[in-house]
Each structure stands twice: as structure tokens, then as C-alpha cells.
Amino acid sequence: AQSVTQLGSHVSVSEGALVLLRCNYSSSVPPYLFWYVQYPNQGLQLLLKYTSAATLVKGINGFEAEFKKSETSFHLTKPSAHMSDAAEYFCAVRIYSSASKIIFGSGTRLSIRP
Amino acid sequence: NAGVTQTPKFRVLKTGQSMTLLCAQDMNHEYMYWYRQDPGMGLRLIHYSVGEGTTAKGEVPDGYNVSRLKKQNFLLGLESAAPSQTSVYFCASSYGQAGTGELFFGEGSRLTVL
Q1: Which of A100, A103, A108 to probe by mutation at the B interface, max B CB count within 10 Å?
Q2: What pLDDT, on the 0 to 100 scale, is given for residue B98?
């Protein structure tokens, strides 16, 4: 069965520092992978997605993620954190043969220190 | 462009009362979903629909019913509300099997059951 694990329920970084949010997946077939962001009292919006093309995916707001099949990982990074990046981030997986099966990780809350 | 609209946005119920959450999308999406979000648990799929007139159970379907009589609408019903159903509910939609599975979310409905 497919699943998603996000390491760290809360990550805190200083403004200007590197952001690294970890996501590992399990899937017996090639997956589609997503990162979503949720700002307070809002719905989720797509940051970026991997759909078996380039393994390094660039998203909105300067975020990017690299698909590593050997490590079953899809970690989210941003070189320099900004105060506006404070939000909750969710990794999600879908097996490409079943568009209806989309599983979310438990989320990581990102805090930015001035 | 409205996207995905959920009504109501807030509701307080007493144990045993019933209610219906309405989700409407104007993007002509085939698939629609209902998730619940609870602290530390990410988003869990309640029910989903892959087309008008069809519904299926997700991870946590007990205590909920759904209907999709029109392609653009997906209703979530609670027949006899329980305190364990206090949560934030999100509706989402996506293109069908040919799509990547990217979800478009509503802004959420916060339900409190006393």
C-alpha cells in the first residue's frame, strides 16, 4: 500500500536560512508526488508536482523538490527562507494508475525566526 | 473564477443533529473528494467520486454519506453528528484519469459538534 511520511511535524529556521522539509513515500509503482502549502485559515494550494518528467521540480515562491527513486524521497527545499513562508506543508502521493487515490502526509509546520 | 466553493464555512451542531456540507466546482472536473483535517493527522479522505452518480469510500467513511447528483456538486452528510466529527472539512476536485491528480481545494468548513 502506498503511504507518505513527513519527518518532523515542526521545523523552525531563521530568515534567510535554507529550508528543508522531508518527505518519504512508499509505492510499488511509479508515483506522482506533490507538495501543497496551507496558510492559516485557508485551503491547500499546490506548490509543485512530480509527474515522471524531470527529477528536479521547481515550484512557486522559490521552492523546489528532487525526486530520488533510490531513496524513495521527495524533499522540499528553498535556499533562503522568507517570513512569508511560514505555513503548513503537506506532501502527497498518487499512483499514476489510479487518479482517485491521493494520500497525504501528516504535515510539517514551518516557522521562520526573524 | 470561483474554483471550489464550500458552504457553510462554519457550523456548530449538537450531538445527534444532522447536517449537509455542500461543495461546488466550476472547472468541469470529473473527480471530487471530501477530506477532514485534524491536528497532527494531515488530511484523511472520507469519500470521493469519479463521476456524476458515483461515489466511493475513502480512509475514514464511517458516520458520513455523500451524493453526487450533478457533476459540479458533491454533498457530504452527517446523519447523527458526534463530537469525534469535530474537524475542518475540505472539498477538492481534479481532472479525471488523464490528469496528474493535482487537487484544487475549497477554503474549508469548520464543524464543531458539542
Answers
A1: A100
A2: 66
